[in-house]
Write a structure and sequence with these properties.
386 residues; alpha/beta; Rossmann fold; Helicase, Ruva Protein, domain 3; five-stranded parallel sheet; two-stranded antiparallel ribbon; 45% helix
Length: 386
Amino acid sequence: MQNLKTIVGRSAEINELRALIKVVGPSDATALILGDSGTGKELVARALHDCSERAAEPFIPVNCGAIPRELLESELFGHRKGAFTGAISDRKGRFELASGGTLFLDEIGDMSMDLQVKLLRVLQERIIDPVGTTQGMAIDVRVIAATHKNVELLIDKGEFREDLYYRLNVMPIEIKALYERKEDIQPLIEHFAVMHAKRRQKPITFAASSMELFMGYNWPGNVRELSNLVNRYSALYPGQAVDFRNVPASMLPPGIRLLANSESVDQSTAMHVASGQGAFNFEKHPDGQAAVQSPESVNRAPQSDTGADVTPMIDDTVRVISMAQSWDSFPEQGLPLKQHMVDIERSLIQQALDKAQGNVSKTARLLNVQRTTLIEKINKYGLTSV
């Protein structure tokens, strides 16, 4: 189907997503799209609309997080002249503008509780009340919602209505983060290279070493970030093969710079070790195992992609490793190893969860664990985001 060609990729996850859109699209059921920022939730919503019998009618998107909450009600339901200061004429809301078509409510997790109550009533009764009138108006609109937040955590914190969640989540659709489907990077690059190519210029390509860095990168901005990068290099190096070794460091994302530097350090270290000139001070223990002697090199922790210091997240781990490698004296009274490791794991997960503002996919990426494994541990330890 032509409308599914906008969903680019060859991974099993993307193939399943396209198949699901084919099934869910023709129905009139409300759908809830879940996925990190930049994964393409609006693209999926448009594909659902295009696969439905409403395709010839309007597709109206509204970002609930970008509109001040005091204006969002009027934006959604419209208002009548004189309803409030500045209401100099009647104004149609997004529900009315989407009549016969689809209304896409992006970032639904940012909607205030009082407005959630009104939205729930609209979904149940299919009637809207424009601001400034008590006369309801019947609507014929399919609603598709989306959020990058963990709605179940929001419900636990009392920030999202459980009944609204079940009303929206009739057809759940989850989009995996780009780092979880690396197979899609190559086709996405080719797609964006064609899209961003200048007139009469052939699309850019990337050197093998640059592609390796792309594949090793964790893509915090997901597909949106990849599109922006291809756009950047299409403007800087039109029609060329882009080699990151020749690209100014300021034009590379911090995470890719870090990967490139790590790669260079690894190669340099291997050469030094091979020649007996170790970049670190190695010492042979009696058991024959090599260990880094100086903990200072460990304590100089790297920074995250956002530039934030991640040292607090590894302090406990470094302390345990230091003890294991005799950098500190072992406690005379001993220590409960199993409980100590549980406490460290709980602490690291909590800190990563807070850093990711409750976003489970981002937390899993920060900790380099599977999302399902992380959810099990969050439930096991009863953790929440501050």
